[in-house]
Design a protein that fits this description.
The complex is a heterodimer. Chain A is of the alpha/beta class. Chain A has three helices and nine strands; from the N terminus they run βαβββαβαββββ. Chain B is of the alpha+beta class. Chain B has one domain: Ubiquitin-like (UB roll). In chain B, strand 3 and strand 4 form a beta hairpin. Classes of the chains: A alpha/beta, B alpha+beta. At the A-B interface, strand 4, helix 2 and strand 5 of A face strand 6 of B.
Chain lengths: 160, 93
């Protein structure tokens, strides 16, 4: 299960709308509590895909490493990633499947005609055959686990 | 040569929860062979069916992507650090 607050969900939706018709992407920061993961904040990352950004996203290894360093400094960890599916359901594609790793949550924001539609989170099956949809619990208001210093990253860039 | 291998979070379930392993080898290839022989569960996620590194799996020797060195034939030195760093990719189709 993935626990997150509505502020985080709103941030992802706004990011998805802003980049429409291209895909957006970002990092879910939080902690693994064993039975569930909780998200304390989301970090927008520039889609580094060289082409077809309306149907592809890429978080470069350099941005991944920056996010990992930031997470470590904040005492949290990368618990997953999000991206948008413009004019497409929030279900993972074969391409998503081919590029996934276990444990992490892969959250997808569907955007229809420029407006946010559904949000769903997915976890890769151990045998890589498919994703299982992950139950999500969205809380109102305050962050479930406070991260400090994550609020002022510049749009589209990971601040280090 | 003893090389430290850094394991990313989602793969630590296959390395007895260890985030760092010390493995022997003269080249990146030899170190990776050791890694996969000790922790075979990693193979499925890092290698394709024909045994090549998956396209989203990047191997860094110290701070350099081995693609810009001699790829898996890159020689390693004592106390080098080998990092497994994923590119995160996907998309609607």
């Amino acid at each position: 299960m993935l626990k997150l607050n509505d502020t985080a969900v709103q941030k992802m939706k706004l990011h998805a709308v802003r980049t429409y018709p291209e895909e957006c992407c970002g990092v879910l920061l939080g902690r693994d509590a064993g039975d569930f993961k909780e998200v304390c904040d989301v970090l927008e990352v520039r889609n580094q895909g060289a082409e077809n950004r309306e149907r592809r996203f890429l978080i470069s290894p350099e941005d991944y490493q920056r996010a990992e360093r930031l997470a470590r400094r904040e005492g949290v960890e990368i618990v997953g990633f999000y991206h948008s599916h413009p004019d497409h359901p929030a279900t993972p594609s074969q391409f998503d499947l081919d590029h996934a790793l276990p444990f992490w949550s892969y959250l997808i924001v569907s955007v229809e005609g420029g407006a946010p539609a559904s949000v769903a989170s997915w976890v890769l099956k151990e045998d890589r055959s498919q994703f299982d949809q992950e139950r999500t619990e969205v809380f109102e208001g305050e962050l479930v686990h406070r991260c400090t210093g994550l609020k002022d990253h510049k749009e589209g860039r990971v601040k280090i | 040569m003893s090389v430290r291998v850094l394991i990313p979070t989602p793969l630590r379930g296959y390395t007895d929860k260890r985030d760092t392993l010390v493995l022997e080898g003269r080249t990146v290839h030899e170190v990776l062979e050791k890694l996969f022989s000790h922790y075979s569960g990693l193979k499925r996620h890092l290698l394709t069916d024909d045994g090549k590194l998956r396209s989203f799996v990047n191997i860094y020797l110290n701070d350099e992507d081995i693609r810009f060195l001699q790829k898996e034939r890159t020689p390693v030195k004592e106390n080098d650090v080998l990092s497994i760093i994923p590119s995160i990719a996907g998309g609607r189709t």
